[in-house]
Amino acid sequence: MRATAAAAGARRRTARPRDEFEPTPWPVALLCGAAGGGAALLAFPPYDLWMLLPVAIALLGAGLLVRSIWLAAGVSLLWGTALFIPLTEWANTYAGSTPWIALGIFEALYIVVFGLLARTVMVRRGLCLTSAVVVSALWVAMETLRSSVPWGGLPWGASAFALADSPLLHLAPWIGIAGLAFVVALLGQLLLFGSLAVLGRRRRGFTGLSGVWPFAIAVAAVLATVVVPHPMNRAPVDRPTMTVAAIQGSMSGIDPVSYTMPDDVFANHLAVTRDVVERTAQNGTQLDLIVWPEDSTGGDPRQNPQLARQLTGAAEEAGAPILVGTQVQVGETERLNQSVLLTPEHTTPYAYSKRHPVPFGEYIPMRGLFSQLSDKVDLVTLDMLPGEEVGVMDLGALDQGQGRVGILICFEIAYDSLVHDVVDEGAEVIVVQSNNALFGHSDEAIQQLAQAKVMAVMSGRSVVHISTVGHSAIFSPTGRRIDFVDHWEQGALLADVPLRTGITPAVAAGPWIAIGLSAVGAVGLLGALGSDHRALTRTTTRRSRRGD
Fold first, then answer.
1. What residues make up the domain containing 335?
2. Would you say residue 17 has pLDDT above 60?
3. 295 shares a domain with 265
């Protein structure tokens, strides 16, 4: 009886042939890891070769198809460090080489976790459509986790931020940041399937020249996104524009020892402001709002009467309020990073405190522990406290004209949850105040500007991204660049900025796109763990059962 049941079970298992593939030789796997991470790096600014990101994910997948889980972990670590160490080189500017390298390796560990989970799915389920969906969902889960944990996470290097100049960005208002990550990973899986088939590494499914079909599907999918409309194009324009001047005064370099702002920061921004006011007065342009960058005053104007007089005097000349960035000390050991509105009536009716301070950059978590590991933590002398209120400034309620302005400070533009918050609270335009002088001549500024463009398209809101030293730009709700000032140049952004009140599907869905896709990955992984199938070819499986 038992023999009969076993034979029947064997017949059921063989009745539906499962996909099999040959394992990747270990030297090729390591090469795939290094080349894949390098390709992923080239997908991001300043290189902007976005089409290499699916290729990079495909190379990672190929490197994971090995006999040993330890080798798969090594391939994943190699891929992650090849991406994140050079991508975060800007951290070396103020933190030094050791913390910078540590940051890159830490971020790479998320790729290791993804790699081991993805390998499990591919080995146990084979290279099929369901495994491609599960692996792509696991990629979303990894990026969501990396953007949230620990200490609020760091979304730098999220897939969506490589797509600022890609037709795939047209999908952003529909499927959000998490949806873009899923699409990119799925394209990578298609490229992997096709490559293995063409190279003769697959035993079932698409084999040989039939492997061109996954390539064709991937290319066709990308081309199809060219004609995807933005939902804001169909929405009625129920709000006028707002005339905004954003000031990039530039300044001397920040002292890397004292970590303090140079003395010329306020004077430079005030000089550019007066120049803009003079020019707009000559051509009859009425400004609605003037925006200065993060930390651009050199002091708190509410505590410094001389600063306040000069700022409110400029606001009075312009006939428009000025939104400035400043630091506010709280007690002896803490501070707030604030945006403060100064009006022509010499009042300060609104202030926003940054809600998401950057760990190790603006505050030191577990300071006692990390101070024993590196003296660089002493550069952050005052820990920044998080603000509690969403930054939406209603100029009408403040009797300063019309328009609801969402405010984000520096790295906050990288967090889609914070962008969702300001839109949900009624922001019709988003202002991002940044101080990229902290990162010298690195690529941090241009990477952050790409994030601003992606978030403009995703949220359906114009984004005014202004930095002390650039790059600075204004993007329309569809991602069109309206005005621009280059890195370490002095100038101003000046434009009639479109206002919008409609809500994109991505914002309406909030975190549920990421949660839903992550759940698909988790369920698919559990299903794979419950399978006793191995997609590695039988000749190799006998020799490598321990590694599966």
1. 236-501
2. no
3. yes
